[in-house]
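Here is one chain, start to finish.
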Amino acid sequence: MSRLMPRHSWIQPNHPCWSCAIDPALALSPYGVPLVKQLGEAITLWVGRELWHILNNPNVYLQQPELVIPKSIASERKSDEESAALEETLRSLREWKKVRLETDLAGLNLFWIGDSLSESFIPKGKNLDNFWRWESFASSLDERLDQSKIANSVLTLAVRDTAALAASLESTFILTYQNSKDFAINLPPDICKALENWGIPCQVLTPQDSIFALERNYLHQLLISAGVAKLLWTELHLAVLHLVVPGTSAIGISLYSSQAMQSSPIENSAVNLELNKNLWTGAYGFWYQL
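Its structure:
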């Protein structure tokens, strides 16, 4: 039986310096549950708001699993491939339902952003401004999305939230993966393709980059310590995505403005709106195969 937790809880993470935001597509893959359950022993894990809604309400999507499969990908698949993808998603959602019923999520070292600060689960000692930073980044990214195409695209919103989460948290990367077809010809993960469509270029890193080689070696050690290195020998082609967002510095100005101009809410809103519109200007990503 699951143990109840207060909606807004605080615990001390095992590794406060490194954290990882889970790509929604990876979380909903057949490897999502075992990866999260074991990887949390080695590093702090995060999920964005829309992904948390999916994981926290699996029954809704068990009835309509097609809602959490990218439409652009589904349209390119043959019917048998799409059927297999739906079955994989159903299996993953059943596993997440079991986790929610039987597991204390605090023990997974898994944190999330909810609809409000009170419905979020944040590590002890984490600056509460991170919630407002995430909200600003998500709102700003909305300016780049075609709203007419994402109204019923749950996974697109989940990707938006994950990118905003990685931008708002320090020392956080996105753990993602390449599907088998993309891996064979070294195309980027789907989350990178989405970011490219939103005007955020993503560059692949190669072993010739010494910093990349050092970081990948370190992450390999984390995977080994968490007991999930064996997944690197399967068809799961893990990848790491780092986002560089120059607009991060503007968030501090925006938050300061909110406090400094409380007596003038109209002026304050105008300043914050102008700042938030440009948060992703000049942003780019770097990704590599893990």
